[in-house]
Design goal:
With 269 residues, the protein is mostly helical. The protein has helices at residues 3-27, 56-60, 75-94, 102-129, 134-147, 163-166, 168-182, 190-203, 205-228, 243-256, 260-268, and strands spanning 151-152, 155-156. Helix content is 64%, strand content 1%. A hairpin with a 2-residue loop joins strand 1 (151-152) and strand 2 (155-156).
């Protein structure tokens, strides 16, 4: 099986996971568990299996419920496609390990898929509600911290991290936690600082710093673009969630292994 075929298979697998992530996003802190059949949020009709096929169901039904014709949120389509695309990119990052190191390929890919699935949930939830829930971000922090002991670049096995690595997340987040404290939450949310802790543990100190810097760059470019759009209701006083931009920064750094020297070299060339 060639790399393109593997990428396509992983993309569609990612859309299935994305469908589940949508369930997590909509049901988290809503009083509903993750079990039980999916229903239309408008007419409460239980959905059939063919209405839950990732991407296809939304497109075939023209983004509407078959019964009440209420528009379905495009979030379903976006999250499914986005998760599939992310999974495909993660696969391409490790594809060189096949076929000689299949077990290592699977281990690293599952590890990466887990963390970026968490980041998708955190990002979309933050976008919808302008808050990063503690349960999600603490899960991310703890798993990223423990991951340091077992995953090291493209190798898997127990090894004690350096003292610097053990504090990398806290080092990255501390300045922003202080900004939150002294601005009384007006300049930055504490949830963003907590997310930086997890990103620092996932990527390490050097790459984690770059991920945060990229997050600020992506956020600034987006905010400026919205301000320049005449039809946009975005103003200088509008609140913009920062979690999604941090997640994009983390993804770019993770995929391309961009540390501080590499990042600075872009400005020197």
């Amino acid at each position: 099986m060639d790399d393109i075929a593997i990428g396509i298979i992983i993309f569609f697998f990612g859309t299935i996971i994305g469908s589940f992530l949508n369930v997590v996003i909509y049901r988290f802190q809503s009083g509903r568990g993750l079990g039980g059949r999916s229903i239309c949020m408008s007419c409460s009709r239980t959905l059939s299996w063919f209405e839950l096929v990732p991407l296809a169901s939304f497109i075939v039904q023209d983004g509407r419920c078959r019964t009440c014709k209420t528009r379905i949120s495009p979030q379903y389509l976006i999250v499914e496609a986005l998760t599939g695309f992310i999974f495909m990119l993660l696969t391409l990052k490790y594809i060189a390990l096949l076929p000689a190191h299949t077990s290592l390929f699977v281990a690293l890919l599952v590890y990466a898929m887990y963390f970026f699935s968490l980041l998708v949930v955190i990002s979309v939830y933050d976008f919808r509600h302008k808050i990063i829930p503690d349960k999600l971000v603490y899960t991310f922090i703890v798993c990223a911290f423990l991951g340091q002991f077992f995953v090291h670049g493209t190798s898997v096995g127990f090894a004690m991290p350096s003292a610097l690595a053990l504090f990398s997340g806290l080092i990255i987040a501390l300045p922003f936690a202080l900004i939150w404290y002294f601005s009384q939450g007006r300049a930055m949310g504490l949830g963003d600082a907590k997310l930086m802790i997890g990103i620092g543990y996932l990527l390490g100190l050097s790459q984690g710093v770059v991920a945060v810097m990229l997050g600020f760059i992506f956020g600034a470019v987006t905010a400026l673009s919205l301000l320049l759009l005449r039809r946009s209701r975005f103003t200088m006083k509008s609140e913009i969630p920062f979690g999604p931009f941090l997640a994009v920064g983390a993804l770019v750094v993770f995929l391309y292994t961009i540390d501080i020297p590499t990042f600075l070299s872009f400005f020197q060339s």
